[in-house]
Structure to design on (203 residues):
C-alpha cells in the first residue's frame, strides 16, 4: 500500500497578493474598462451618425467658443501621468513612503482637472437640450467627468489608508497599482473625446 503524501513545507511565507493578471481585481478593472469603453464607443457612433446626417457640423456653428479649456485639460492630464507612473512603480517596489508622498500630487491634479472641466462645460457654446449634437457633446463630457470623479475619490481613500498602520498591507499596494492603471485609462479616453469635441468640427 502506497503511503499518503505528507506535506511538511511551510506556506506562511508565500505572498497573499499578486500584481497584474494574477490578481482577480486586475481582471475586474479590465472588465470594467471594457464595459465603460462600450458606452463611449456607442456615444462615438452616435456622434458620427449625427454628423453624417447634417448639412454642416456642428449645426448652427455651435462648436466650443475656443480651444483653451479643453487643451489645458489635455495638458494637465498628460502631465499627471508622470506622478502616476511613479506611484505605480513604487507600488510594485513596495515603496510606501514614496506612495504617501506622491498621491497628494495626483489628488491635486484631479482637483485642478475638475475645476477646468467646469470651465469646459461653460465653453461648449450650447446646452444639452438644444439639439442632438449638443446632447452628444454634453454626454461625452459628463461620462468622462464621472470617470475623473470616481478615480479621484478612490485615490483619496487609498492615500488615507496608506497613512494608517494597516493601510499599506499588500492588498493596498495592489489596489494602488490598479488605481494607477485606471487613471491611464481615463486620460487615454480623453484624447479621442478631445479630438471629437474640439477638432473634428474645425476640420
Amino acid at each position: 500500500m502506497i503511503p499518503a503524501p505528507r506535506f511538511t513545507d511551510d506556506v506562511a511565507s508565500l505572498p497573499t497578493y499578486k500584481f497584474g493578471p494574477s490578481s482577480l481585481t486586475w481582471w475586474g478593472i479590465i472588465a470594467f474598462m471594457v464595459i465603460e469603453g462600450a458606452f463611449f464607443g456607442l456615444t462615438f457612433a452616435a456622434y458620427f451618425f449625427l454628423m453624417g446626417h447634417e448639412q454642416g457640423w456642428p449645426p448652427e456653428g455651435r462648436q466650443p467658443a475656443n480651444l483653451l479649456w479643453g487643451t489645458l485639460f489635455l495638458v494637465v492630464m498628460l502631465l499627471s501621468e508622470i506622478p502616476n507612473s511613479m506611484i505605480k512603480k513604487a507600488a510594485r517596489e513596495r515603496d510606501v513612503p514614496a506612495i504617501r508622498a506622491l498621491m497628494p500630487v495626483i489628488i491635486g491634479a484631479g482637483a485642478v482637472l475638475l475645476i477646468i472641466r467646469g470651465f469646459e462645460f461653460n465653453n461648449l457654446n450650447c446646452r444639452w437640450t438644444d439639439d442632438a449634437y449638443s446632447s452628444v457633446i454634453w454626454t461625452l463630457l459628463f461620462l468622462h467627468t464621472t470617470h475623473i470623479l470616481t478615480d479621484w475619490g478612490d485615490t483619496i481613500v487609498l492615500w488615507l489608508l496608506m497613512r494608517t498602520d494597516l493601510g499599506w498591507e499588500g492588498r493596498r499596494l495592489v489596489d494602488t497599482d490598479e488605481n494607477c492603471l485606471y487613471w491611464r485609462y481615463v486620460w487615454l479616453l480623453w484624447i479621442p473625446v478631445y479630438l471629437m469635441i474640439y477638432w473634428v468640427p474645425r476640420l
In short: The CA atoms of residues 43 and 136 lie 7 Å apart. The radius of gyration is 22 Å. The chain has a mean pLDDT of 86. The chain has one domain: 22-202.
